[in-house]
């Protein structure tokens, strides 16, 4: 029986083969790499498109929400120019953390996320923005439009995680986390990361 719809014959690459989202930069796709339940850091292998074990977590720090990236984005010169003190972008897809009232316990999934803000992060001097978003149609978070609507305690938790999640026991962190920015600036970062992607890969 012939299928009436066209569809890919193989799995598209999560970074290069998926679109940025249904309505970027307001609503984007987030490809989830790790969840709040993961004691191992998984990430996308950029060559194959498969998930790979990066490292076991050496500390008790766990992601406070779903963590992944936005497809067809890239942090290079344009993104770096938006962050004070950055010498360049980290040359990875743009990171995103998504809040969900319901527990999502598996990675390697795609979801629709509404952008509400971001956290500027310098990793060894490289721009490594963390976009903050809420799961579309989420019963608790879904109607939020700006990071100012989130509890301050949650923002502090996110900042602490990104300041410490790469730090090994007894080492000093090389990550500098700044004050959060609003949805308008987050959308500018996403648009710029889309342009950096086009310049690098088109």
What does this structure look like?
With 202 residues, this protein is α+β, with helices and mostly antiparallel strands. The chain has a single domain, classed as Alpha-Beta Complex (Inorganic Pyrophosphatase), CATH 3.90.80. Helix content is 18%, strand content 27%. It contains three helices and eleven strands. A five-stranded mixed barrel has the order 1-4-6-10-7. Strands 5-9-8-11 form a four-stranded mixed beta sheet. The longest helix has 19 residues. The protein is globular. The N and C termini lie far apart (37 Å). 38% of the residues are buried. The model has no long low-confidence stretch (mean pLDDT 92).
What overall form do the CA principal axes indicate?
Answer: globular
Counting DSSP H or I runs of 4 or more residues, the number of helices is 3
Enter the CATH topology name: Inorganic Pyrophosphatase
Q: Could you list the spans in which at least 5 consecutive residues all have pLDDT below 50?
A: none
For the record, the CATH architecture stands as Alpha-Beta Complex
Helices and strands, in order, run as EEEEHEEEEEEHEH
Whole-number radius of gyration?
A: 17 Å
Into which percent range does the helicity of residues fall? Answer: 10-25%
Give the number of domains: 1
CATH superfamily (homologous) name: Inorganic pyrophosphatase
Q: Report how far apart the termini are.
A: 37 Å
Mean pLDDT: 92
The largest sheet, given as strand count, sense and whether it forms a barrel, is: 5 strands, mixed, barrel
């Amino acid at each position: 029986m012939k299928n009436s719809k066209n569809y890919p014959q193989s799995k598209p690459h999560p970074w290069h083969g998926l679109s940025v989202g249904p309505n970027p930069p307001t609503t984007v796709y987030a490809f989830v790499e790790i969840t709040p339940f993961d004691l191992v850091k998984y990430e996308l292998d950029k060559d194959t498109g498969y998930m790979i074990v990066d490292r076991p977590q050496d500390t008790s720090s766990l992601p406070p929400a779903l963590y992944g990236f936005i497809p067809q984005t890239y942090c290079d010169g344009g993104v770096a120019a938006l962050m004070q003190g950055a010498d360049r972008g980290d040359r990875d897809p743009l990171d995103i953390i998504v809040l969900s009232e319901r527990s999502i316990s598996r990675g390697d999934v795609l979801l629709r996320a509404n952008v509400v803000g971001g956290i500027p992060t310098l990793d060894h001097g490289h721009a490594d923005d963390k976009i903050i978003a809420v799961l579309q149609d989420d019963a608790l978070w879904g109607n939020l439009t700006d990071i100012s609507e989130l509890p301050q305690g949650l923002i502090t938790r996110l900042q602490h995680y990104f300041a410490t999640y790469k730090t090994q026991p007894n080492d000093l962190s090389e990550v500098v986390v700044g004050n959060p920015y609003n949805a308008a600036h987050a959308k500018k970062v996403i648009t710029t990361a889309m342009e950096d992607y086009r310049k690098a890969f088109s």
